[in-house]
């Protein structure tokens, strides 16, 4: 799976502090060539090299206009605690820094069959929509953006949105000012031609998905993206057998299959994102069923139980046998 990506060096042209926790980075190819074409909702994987040799790989949504491939822009929120990537980007990356970037991949594309597009963003979840908005406007589509954040100083890009061409189609919901997004009322008011798109914290995504189902909105009309995978509340420990070596590993609650393999040095597995979005750690299931937590496989592929992403997915039962 790893060869599906192309890799190239990019130089940081600009670093802007958008909020106390979010920075925007402008990137261009080091060799001066145009960057690969992309569509709104695409992400790239950024590889970062620490001075001590440690490497981080994080997936970030592209937020620049897809019509302009002279540069890309990404936004990075400083996480607490950071797994390494966000801290590196915030504390070590400056104008002139060279990074390694993957070609774009899109798991959150606009559905061309929809007559209307309702975009719902929470916090840093605004980023993929910033690239989708110019696409929607250029195509003459009917769209609206609902953007919720906790206070004005934490609403990344909202001044640009309200001063730009999408202002009339954008509504802000600022918690500190008593403005609350009523998800039930919003979804209840949609007609059958509208599609929903949501990106942001997991509670927001779950609320949109659950409300849409309660109101009879078909799953095919609800699209969501979240890079940070979450472990289900009822997820316990389980065993994994690596069929090629016969080794059996115990995967504790809160630990990924990939972490268990790496901790035991039981096999060599490539994984770029560690968040279930890049597809590089896709592994064949020989026995057992997986609780799929990735965003890479389609619903049909998940139901088939042929493969899983070992960086985030877990056993549905007590054990799995994998082709490793």
Describe the overall structure.
- The chain has helices at residues 85-91, 127-138, 158-163, 183-188, 202-214, 257-264, 299-304; strands spanning 7-17, 22-29, 42-49, 55-61, 72-77, 98-102, 105-106, 116-122, 142-149, 170-174, 194-199, 222-225, 238-242, 247-251, 282-287, 290-291, 307-309, 314-315, 319-322.
- The protein has seven helices and 19 strands.
- With 324 residues, it is of the alpha/beta class.
- 39% of the residues are buried.
- The strands form four sheets. Strands 1, 2, 3, 4, 5, 6 and 7 form a seven-stranded antiparallel sheet that branches. A five-stranded parallel sheet has the order 10-9-8-11-12, sandwiched between helices.
- The longest helix has 13 residues, at 202-214.
- It is globular, with a radius of gyration of 20 Å.
- The chain folds into three domains: 2-106, Beta Barrel (Elongation Factor Tu (Ef-tu), domain 3), CATH 2.40.30.10; 116-225, Rossmann fold; 238-322, Beta-grasp domain (Ubiquitin-like (UB roll), Roll), CATH 3.10.20.30.
- Helix content is 18%, strand content 32%.
- Helix 2 links the parallel strand 8 (116-122) and strand 9.
